[in-house]
Every structure is written in C-alpha cells, then in structure tokens.
C-alpha cells in the first residue's frame, strides 16, 4: 500500500479539468492506498480572497469533492489550514529552496504575468508549500494533472535535498501518478489549451453548472471557419473541442465527428450541440449531489473534523521526526 497525497486550491468551484485531471483518480485510488486529499486554502491566499469568499470557497470545494465520490471514511479528506504542521515544514523547506530555481518555475512566470500588481512571496514559494503538503505524509504518489508535472519535480528536489543535507533517506521522492492512463490535460472552451479557474470567463465548465450555463458556454466556444478540404490540419480551438468530447462523449460520437472533420463535412453547430448534451448528462448526477450536500452543514462539519484529526496525526509525527533530524532538541 502506497501513500498518496493530492490537493486542490480553494479558489472557486471545481471544473471538468479538476475532475478528469485529479478527482476521478482520487476516487479510484481511495480504497487501495493510504490516501490524503486536501483543500488548499493556504495556497489560495496568494490571490487575496476576502474572509467571506475564503470560507465559501473551501466549503464549496469540500462539497464538490464529496459529490464527485471521495469517501471520507476511506480517504483522509481535510482542509489544509486545519493542519498547521504544514506551515512549519514549509518554513523548514524554505531554508533550502533557492530564489533562482523558484523564479524559473513556469507557473511563477505565468502568475506574475496574470497578477503583476501582486507578486508576493507566497507566489514565489508556492512550490515549496506544495512540497510540504506532499512530503508531510511521506507520500510517494501524487495524482495530479499534466499541468503539475514541474511542481512535482520541485517537490522531489526539495525532498532529495533534505535527505542529502541531513544524510538520511527520510523522505521518499514523490512522483506524479495517474491511475489508468497517461496524465491528462483538459482544454478550455475559449481556445486556451488548459481549462482553469483563473482563465477567462467561459473557459471552464464547472461541476455545479446548470444545463443553461453549460449550453451557453459550449455554444459560445471558440471555433474557426471550418475545414475547406478533406485532411486539413486542426486548429487549437477545434482540437480543444475534440479533446473535451474525448472526456465526456462516447467513442462512437467522437469518431463520427472526427470523420466529418476529416471529410470536411463537419458543422461545428452540430458538434457543439452534441458536446452540450454529453456535458449535461455527465454533470447532472454530480450537480444533484452538490445541491443535497449543500443543505447538510452538520455532515460537512463532521467530515472536516474527522479529516483534520487524521491528517494532523500523520503530519505531527513527520514534523516531530524532522525536528529531530534537523537537530532541534528539548532541554
Ligand atoms: P488547481 O485547480 O490548479 O488547484 O488544480 C487542482 C488539480 O486539478 C491538480 O491536480 C491539477 O493538475 C488538476 N487540473 C486543473 N486544471 C486541469 C486541467 N485543465 N486538466 C487536467 N488537470 C487539471
């Protein structure tokens, strides 16, 4: 049995990228491994949410994790800020994280492009906090989407560096992992190669979107003027629509539209109608469960309490041992 850790930032509702890149795998793994899944609310502070939004978002992500099938009795499902031990490990790891390597991180470069007026130290050290989240449970496997590969590489660097520095093999190096296929990246509807929370309006389909919202977004998705002759190459926005179809539609449906594209007889309106329908049927049971959970505060509180207790036990043990390795001693 391996230890598995993964988290999702609490910066808003979960979308299909989170589902197919992460949660679907969590659900598959939860009964076979020692799993820790958390809601990364410390991480979300890099974007300065208001206190009201912070709590609302954490609650929403908790609901959506559960709606998507995480079983809090099988996995440890917890809120990052309920485990303050993480911040101590983060501080300790920061002492061996270098400015140059953090500045070279692609996601840091992207973030400073997106929020040039708020380039805070939390953004720079984001991969260190992420490493702390993972290695605090001594995890070897991290189910994440393809967009997170570089962060995982940094987590391995920090784990290995700690081991080298203190001449130990205490931390196992963590690896990105996908249950049954290669790492996926779900594209956006606006032509962007990634579906994401902080992308443009209309980029993402959220698990809680109602049919009307889904229809509006899909019908407005970016396309091109269509293939003029058979065998033409696909543009990025069209490839995105096909990749979305790959995750929510049947193989027959996908092949039908691929064939029409290759023969240059495709009508994007038909493809969008089909994609809308398939997205609605895919998200319907999730949306219903989200509404049910939203009305059950008592259950949510119980889940959060139980998760915090289990996660803290594991985290406190690691921090205790790490303090010893580093050389902190009580008099
Ligand atoms: P985030 O929403 O950035 O906090 O990401 C949470 C998890 O969802 C991570 O494991 C990501 O790899 C995954 N994820 C987010 N967006 C996508 C996407 N467009 N495609 C695949 N996985 C994604």
Please outline what is shown here:
It is globular, with a radius of gyration of 21 Å. The strands form two sheets. A three-stranded parallel sheet has the order 1-2-3, sandwiched between helices. Strands 4-5 form a two-stranded parallel ribbon.
Q: How would you describe what is shown here?
A:
By secondary structure, this protein is mainly alpha-helical. The chain folds into 2 domains: 205 residues, 3-Layer(aba) Sandwich (Rossmann fold), CATH 3.40.50.620; 81 residues, Tyrosyl-Transfer RNA Synthetase, CATH 1.10.240.10. 55% of the residues lie in helices and 7% in strands. A 3-stranded parallel β-sheet has the order 1-2-3, with helices on both faces. A two-stranded parallel ribbon has the order 4-5. Strand 4, helix 9 and strand 5 form a beta-alpha-beta unit. Helix 3 packs across helix 13, helix 4 crosses helix 8 and helix 11 packs across helix 13. The longest helix is centred in the C-terminal third of the chain and has 30 residues. The protein starts with a strand and ends in a 5-residue tail after the last helix. The mean pLDDT is 94.
């Amino acid at each position: 049995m391996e230890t598995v850790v993964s988290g999702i930032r609490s910066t808003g509702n979960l979308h299909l990228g989170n589902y197919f890149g992460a949660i679907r795998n969590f659900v598959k793994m939860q009964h076979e491994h020692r799993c820790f899944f958390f809601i990364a609310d410390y991480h979300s502070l890099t974007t300065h949410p208001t206190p009201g939004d912070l709590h609302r978002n954490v609650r929403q992500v908790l609901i959506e994790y559960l709606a998507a099938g995480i079983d809090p009795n099988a996995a440890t499902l917890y809120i990052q800020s309920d485990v303050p031990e993480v911040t101590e490990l983060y501080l300790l790891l920061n002492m061996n994280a270098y400015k140059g390597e953090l500045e070279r991180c692609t996601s840091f470069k992207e973030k400073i492009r997106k929020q040039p007026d708020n380039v805070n130290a939390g953004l720079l050290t984001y991969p260190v906090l992420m490493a702390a989240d993972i290695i605090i449970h001594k995890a070897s496997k991290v189910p994440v989407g393809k967009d997170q590969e570089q962060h995982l590489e940094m987590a391995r660097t920090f784990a290995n560096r700690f081991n080298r520095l203190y001449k130990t093999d205490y931390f196992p190096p963590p690896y990105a992992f996908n249950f049954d296929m290669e790492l996926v990246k779900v594209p956006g509807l606006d032509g962007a190669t990634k579906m994401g929370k902080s992308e443009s309006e209309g980029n993402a389909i959220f698990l809680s979107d109602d049919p009307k919202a889904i229809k509006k977004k899909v019908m407005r998705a970016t396309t091109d003027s269509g293939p003029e002759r058979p065998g033409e190459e696909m543009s990025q926005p069209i490839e995105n629509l096909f990749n979305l179809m790959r995750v929510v539609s049947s193989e027959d449906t996908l092949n039908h539209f691929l064939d029409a594209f290759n023969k240059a007889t495709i009508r994007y309106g038909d493809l969008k109608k089909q994609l809308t329908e398939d997205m609605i049927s895919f998200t319907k049971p999730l949306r219903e469960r989200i509404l049910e959970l939203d009305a059950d505060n008592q259950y949510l509180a119980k889940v959060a309490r139980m998760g915090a207790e289990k996660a803290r036990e594991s985290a406190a043990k690691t921090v205790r041992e790490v303090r010893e390795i580093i050389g902190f001693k009580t008099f």
